[in-house]
Amino acid sequence: MSELILHHYEASPFAEKARRIMGLKGLSWRSVEVPMVMPKPDLMPLTGGYRKIPVLQIGADIYCDTHLIARELEQRFPDQTLFPMGDRGIAYGIGAWSDHAFFDDILTIVMSSAENWEARMREDRKQLFSEADWAGAKAKLAHARTQVRAHGALIEAQLSDGRRFLYGDAPGFVDLQASHMFWFCWRNFPDADEMFAGFERVRAWEERIAALGHGNVSPIESGAAVEAARLAESTTQPWVDPDDPQALPLGAIVDVAPDDYGKEPAQGELLVYGPDRIAIRVEGERTGNIVIHFPRLGFRVDLSESQRS
Ligand SMILES: N[C@@H](CCC(=O)N[C@@H](CS)C(=O)NCC(=O)O)C(=O)O
User: In the chain, what are the domain boundaries?
Assistant: First the structure.
């Protein structure tokens, strides 16, 4: 199997979730540091236009979004399972709370200080979160802090019987689906201790997860990762769900885009199309033939303009 290459940057909570998956599974991987703002000249050829990180590359197969990164790593490395309590469905579903509800309240706090940011970062994030209420963030700050505390209270309650991890004594994906948001708060908000005052169990739990580490990491240049894709061949086989409500034909040229923010679509030939994932084949000048994978949940697939009659 080709080596695991994670495209990411240090400060990202979603990247921290992916790094913690590597840690929990004890994996060895190569790290590409991606710029925090556009342009991302060595990432976009691999993702077909999807701009977010983290992105996992295994040869010529590119996996976008932490949901799918978890799925793929669990499939390829089942030994140290992400689901010690058998929560193979719900652990993914919890992302709708942490990566959306919880994240949105964190985002409001982050946006409320946007006037102090470097102009380049502000413009980039305004473009990324174009539907967010930038002008109203300051007025919503006090409320957002109450919400962040309320999210913390959910975890404190879950841990109240003294268990070490959310579902018991073994850490799993469910823990990683929530801990990255606390990681972000404690790193970035000077008043995080205040917001989570009294939640001693949350703090100890987050530290236990951090102690799992990130696995064995070694750096690789972004250009070398693109070259690794060009030299490899995808191992993905075509597959279509016969019961898919959208019923698109394999081989159709489609646009795939997240339905929340950063909606720039990736365009390619439909190769895999099911309730848990989508994959498209893309031929790029620098990458040769690659296959880009996305989760189905939270992503739209539409026939490209050229295919609509
Ligand atoms: N649903 C995605 C969210 C990823 C995400 O929003 N990543 C942020 C970094 S925290 C990002 O890429 N922002 C845009 C950028 O860095 O250009 C996932 O789970 O991977």
Answer: 4-80+217-307, 90-210
Which atom in ligand 1 lies closest to the alpha carbon of residue 124? 17
* Domain made up of 4-80+217-307: CATH architecture: 3-Layer(aba) Sandwich (3.40)
Single-letter amino acid code for the residue at 244: D
- Two structure tokens written together for 287: 């990458």
12 CA from centroid of ligand 1 (Å)? 7
Cis amide prior to 39 (ω within 30 degrees): yes
**pLDDT band at residue 309 under the 50/70/90 scheme:** low
Q: What pLDDT, in 10s, does the model give residues 12-32?
A: 999 999 999 999 999 999 999
Domains 4-80+217-307 and 90-210 share a fold: no
User: Taking the model in full, what pTM does it have?
Assistant: 0.98
Q: Which residue of 10, 12, 42, 52 sits with most ligand 1 atoms within 8 Å of its CB, as the best mutation to test the pocket?
A: 52
Whether 32 contacts 225, CB under 8 Å: yes
90-210: CATH, from 1.20.1050.10, 3.90.550.10, 2.160.10.10, 3.40.50.1980:
1.20.1050.10
**Digit-coded pLDDT (tens) for 135-158:** 999 999 999 999 999 999 999 999
Indicate if the pLDDT at residue 247 is higher than 80.
yes
Atom of ligand 1 nearest to the CA of 65: 20
